[in-house]
Amino acid sequence: MKELQVKNDANGKVVGQLVEVPIPTPGPNDVLIKVAVTGTNPKDWKYINTEKAFNSGDDIAGTVESVGENVPSFRPGDRVAAFHVMLTQTGGSFAEYAVAPATTTFHIPRNLSFEDAATIPLVAYTVGIALYQDLALPAPWARKDGEPVPLVVYGGTTSVGLTALKFARLSGFSPLITIAGGSKDVIARDNLADVIIDYRNNPNIAEEIKKALNRKELLHAFDAFSESPSAEPLAANLSPKGKLVGILPYKQELPNGHKLKFAYVGSGHQVYPPYNTEEESKADQDFVQVFSSYLEKILREGRFKTHPIEVLPGGLNGIPEGLNRLKQQKVKASKLVARIAETQGL
Ligand SMILES: NC(=O)c1ccc[n+]([C@@H]2O[C@H](COP(=O)([O-])OP(=O)(O)OC[C@H]3O[C@@H](n4cnc5c(N)ncnc54)[C@H](OP(=O)(O)O)[C@@H]3O)[C@@H](O)[C@H]2O)c1
Fold this sequence. Notes:
CATH architecture of the largest domain: Alpha-Beta Complex
Distance between the termini: 8 Å
InterPro entries: ADH-like_N (IPR013154), ER (IPR020843), GroES-like_sf (IPR011032), NAD(P)-bd_dom_sf (IPR036291), Trans-enoyl_RdTase-like (IPR047122)
Domain Enoyl reductase (ER): 16-338
Shape: globular
CATH class of the largest domain: Alpha Beta
Organism: Arthrobotrys musiformis
Order of helices and strands: EEEHEEEEHHEHEHEHEHEEHEHE
Number of strands: 15
CATH superfamily of the largest domain: Medium-chain alcohol dehydrogenases, catalytic domain
Helix content: 25-40%
Low-confidence stretches: none
Largest sheet: 7 strands, mixed
Structural class: alpha/beta
Number of domains: 2
Keywords: Oxidoreductase
Mean pLDDT: 97
Number of helices: 9
Radius of gyration: 20 Å
CATH topology of the largest domain: Quinone Oxidoreductase, Chain A, domain 1
Bound molecules: NADP nicotinamide-adenine-dinucleotide phosphate
Pfam families: ADH_N
């Protein structure tokens, strides 16, 4: 089969090459998927270098080809989406076939396109781990008990942030306050937040959050951007016993002695020192299994609307340009996906 291997050229531009490699063999707990559409994520350009090119994609949508001996829940021909194990250096979603653990694979309903499904896996598991494991918020299926929980999400128009708002709505958190910029209409359109604060040229974000909280105690904040100073206005409003979680390591000092806990999606598969501990990963590996089943249900019932997409021209050959645009922060509130069958040279 063919896969796309990417690396940086001497000028830091992402370049790619189609390479003939063997079809991967699923391990006992894995699913082998014929990839129809691959998604993309910022990490696909962040972890490559100029030396060894590799297939850095992890978001898969396609059809089950075969399953490992310990996988009772999938059969050849099933339509699925899946999150591949990150940074494996061999294999990945930029290919005709890819392997993923069954725990991070989920069925997709007939009426959901592979293009839309490819936007879900990595980002959804990130949000699941961040909100329900690291922030320990009540899961969407938990019975509502007492006052609704306020939540502030910084970066409501990043793929991670918008997905967090969707799960926050499913969980019934309120008030739901978010900070976003030029793409904020995607939040308003689906009523995914009670208050949207524009971060652009705004020195009063902390004050605006305070006003929106209306004297309610803030115990949970999620920074879905995590580039300084995003966490500052969150920490400034957080209760002394509150928790702040983000998606990039955050080194800057924060108000009131708060620390940002880094939530790492890879924790659902394995330990990635120093990002997570063995104990965290053990719990997160159980969590993703349960979360996959919940994802299947809300997709089947039409309770989860997928991210806006842009289909890259040229299949796998369009991915390097897509990754360059992600790197230049030119992609706004949209997921770039590629259809494998449109690749010239397969
Ligand atoms: N820890 C993990 O496991 C994990 C998992 C997934 C992603 N990540 C990381 O999370 C980050 C976001 O990834 P993503 O895929 O969600 O990104 P993305 O969808 O590519 O984010 C694009 C959006 O970023 C927003 N943005 C740009 N500057 C901003 C600012 N100063 N404040 C708030 N929002 C701003 C823009 O919103 P507007 O158009 O509204 O301005 C834009 O639409 C990346 O750094 C990624 O590497 C980490």
